[in-house]
Amino acid sequence: MIFISAGHNSKSKKVKQDPGAIGNGYKEGDLTIDFRDRVCKELDALKARYIKDSDEETLAMYLNRIRTGNGSVVIEYHFDAAESPAATGTTGLIEEESDRFDKAFAKEITDTTAAVLGIRNRGVIDEAQSHRGRLGLMREDGIICLAELAFISNKDDMDRYFGHRDLLAKRHAEIIVKYENMIP
Ligand SMILES: [Zn+2]
Predict the structure, then answer these.
(1) pLDDT of 77-129, one tens digit each?
(2) What is the dihedral of CA 109, 113, 114, 117, to 10 degrees?
(3) pTM of the model
(4) Separation of CA 27 and ligand 1 centre (Å)
């Protein structure tokens, strides 16, 4: 099964909202919800089945609800932010205990994002190397990637993202389905 989620519940009405990072007039949570929905639309077109987070769920509620398994593909979207407006690029995060499937999936997602958006490829790093530390998402079973698509704090990253987000969603959906089919 495919599990797809938007980092930060910026639109919740029932639980406390988490906007995520703010940059260039955008809330990270709004962008991740929009991108998740675009990828889901492409998954629908591919007739792929998936479970997604609800906009009324915090990450903890979502992780508590889902039951992933060995062959699952788990992806969550975020945008990076930095004090310097020049910080740019896309990053893939994987778990400390990653296997070759996690690494290959995250590399393909990150390479494709960099190529489609035409921004710097910051590569794949494990959670311990990131400023986030150990992540709840990474404790799920399956092939897991947290994708930092671009820098919300960088105007050029955002322009490129808005110019190419539909193609990016299509490519992501294709990669997700490919990896979901890899382990029966
Ligand atoms: Zn985030």
Answers:
(1) 999 999 999 999 999 999 999 999 999 999 999 999 999 999 999 999 999 98
(2) 170
(3) 0.97
(4) 10
Here the tokens at position 162 are: 């808005």
Q: Cα–Cα–Cα angle for 121, 75, 133, nearest 5°? A: 70
Give the C-alpha separation, 45 to 63, whole Å: 26
State the distance from the centre of ligand 1 to the C-alpha of 32, rounded, in angstroms: 8
Give me the domain span that covers residue 158. Answer: 2-180
Structure token pair of residue 54: 């609800």
- Cα–ligand 1 centroid distance for 7 (angstroms): 5
- The alpha carbon dihedral of 100, 103, 106, 112 has a sign of negative
Give me ligand 1 centre to Cα 21, in Å: 7
Return the CATH number at 122.
3.40.630.40
Q: How far apart are CA 145 and CA 142, in angstroms?
A: 10
Residue 130 binned pLDDT confidence (cut-offs 50, 70, 90) = confident
Q: Is the separation of the CB atoms in 109 and 35 below 8 Å?
A: no
The count of structural domains within the chain is 1
